[in-house]
């Protein structure tokens, strides 16, 4: 046996020669760290779950893949934003009266284009567009409501931002024009919802009404992998999240609740990106508050493409979401960009808040 063969035996490698397959002895070192499990890809996970939605016949699965693809492109654009001159204001305001950032426009284009080419969507409601985007797709079964880039003003200071999306089945027959009833549906009618968080890592978290699962993007492989299966929000928590600058202009009940939180030694945490604040509280336990105020008597969070999606996720994870009086998912939208107060997070904290309202 030559030197190469002896070395092969030492490493536990099979060698084949003209005479026989030589047996090897087992590894003498622990190789488990070298062969760690990468995990289940998002595509595989979606495919495995298709049987839960026989009515969809694959369209919903494809739609989720389209959103995932667009999020990868947006993550790339965000990652190089400081070098590609796409930070800062675009020079226009959106229908909310808010100054659009350049990446708001980029993200809106990317998601709209992906949903158009995917072929499963007939209409899109976007924070960045005044009216419904009719994709002129007569066979599309779904309507998507989306905030393409939540918290985009934080881009210039390298703070986490996100995308929020809701998916509804269209109500009117395929082939007919898009109508108001297709678009202005209650959150309880969502068939899927989720968000993408662009932070220290990129995560996609979504639900189809059967639990909540989170996937982390592995850039070198270009794939989302299941990293947070069956997410359950803690029943309570020690975090309360609010823009403290609102305090002088909110109701007395909110102030009483905040004071109670401080007396109990709870921690105040506020990032200013709804997705990032919600994600932290979902995993660690806490409550996010954006009440009505003197400046925004109807609240500030958009019902169709922000509150509904996060409320669906919160409830599927065991949490709770209200406007202070009603379950968010029971509110009938009256306009595309309707705003609402939002109290969302761990069930016991939301219930405690209600005792002060």
From TrEMBL:
Positions with a binding annotation for substrate: 150-153, 243, 270, 288-290, 300
Cofactor: Mg(2+)
This protein's record includes keyword Transmembrane: no
InterPro entries tied to this protein: FBPase_C_dom, FBPase_class-1, FBPase_N, FBPtase
Domain Fructose-1-6-bisphosphatase class 1 C-terminal: 236-355
Origin: domain of life: Bacteria
Compartments, as annotated in UniProt: Cytoplasm
GO CC terms in record: cytosol
GO MF term set: fructose 1,6-bisphosphate 1-phosphatase activity; magnesium ion binding
UniProt keyword list: Carbohydrate metabolism, Cytoplasm, Hydrolase, Magnesium, Metal-binding
Pathways per UniProt: Carbohydrate biosynthesis
Family membership: Belongs to the FBPase class 1 family.
Subunit structure: Homotetramer.
Protein name: Fructose-1,6-bisphosphatase class 1
Organism name: Lunatimonas lonarensis
């Amino acid at each position: 046996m030559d030197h190469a063969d002896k070395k092969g035996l030492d490493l536990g490698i099979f060698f084949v020669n003209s005479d026989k397959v030589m047996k090897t002895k087992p590894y003498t070192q622990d190789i488990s760290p070298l062969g760690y499990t990468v995990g289940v890809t998002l595509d595989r996970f979606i495919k495995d779950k298709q049987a839960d939605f026989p009515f969809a016949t694959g369209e919903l699965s494809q739609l989720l893949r389209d959103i995932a693809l667009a999020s990868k492109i947006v993550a790339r654009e965000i990652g190089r934003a400081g070098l590609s001159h796409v930070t800062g204001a675009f020079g226009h305001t959106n229908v909310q009266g808010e100054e659009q950032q350049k990446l708001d426009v980029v993200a809106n284009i990317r998601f709209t284009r992906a949903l158009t080419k995917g072929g499963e969507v007939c209409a899109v409601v976007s924070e960045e567009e005044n009216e419904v985007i009719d994709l002129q797709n007569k066979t599309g079964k779904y309507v998507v409501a989306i905030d393409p880039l939540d918290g985009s003003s934080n881009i210039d200071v390298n703070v986490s931002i996100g995308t929020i999306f809701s998916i509804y089945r269209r109500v009117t027959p395929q082939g007919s024009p898009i109508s108001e009833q297709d678009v202005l549906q209650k959150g309880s009618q969502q068939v899927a919802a989720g968000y993408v968080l662009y932070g220290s890592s990129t995560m996609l978290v979504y639900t189809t009404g059967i639990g909540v699962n989170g996937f982390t993007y592995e850039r070198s492989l270009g794939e989302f992998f299941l990293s947070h299966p069956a997410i359950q929000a803690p029943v309570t928590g020690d975090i309360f999240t609010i823009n403290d600058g609102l305090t002088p202009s909110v109701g007395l009940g909110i102030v009483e609740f905040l004071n109670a939180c401080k007396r109990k030694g709870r921690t105040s945490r506020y990032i200013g990106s709804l997705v990032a604040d919600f994600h932290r509280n979902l995993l660690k336990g806490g409550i996010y508050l954006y009440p009505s105020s003197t400046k925004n008597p109807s609240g500030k969070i958009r019902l169709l493409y922000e509150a509904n999606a996060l409320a669906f996720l919160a409830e599927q994870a065991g949490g709770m979401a209200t406007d202070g009086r009603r379950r968010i998912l029971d509110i009938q939208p009256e306009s595309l960009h309707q705003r609402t107060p939002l109290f969302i997070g761990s069930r016991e904290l939301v219930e405690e808040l209600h005792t002060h309202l």
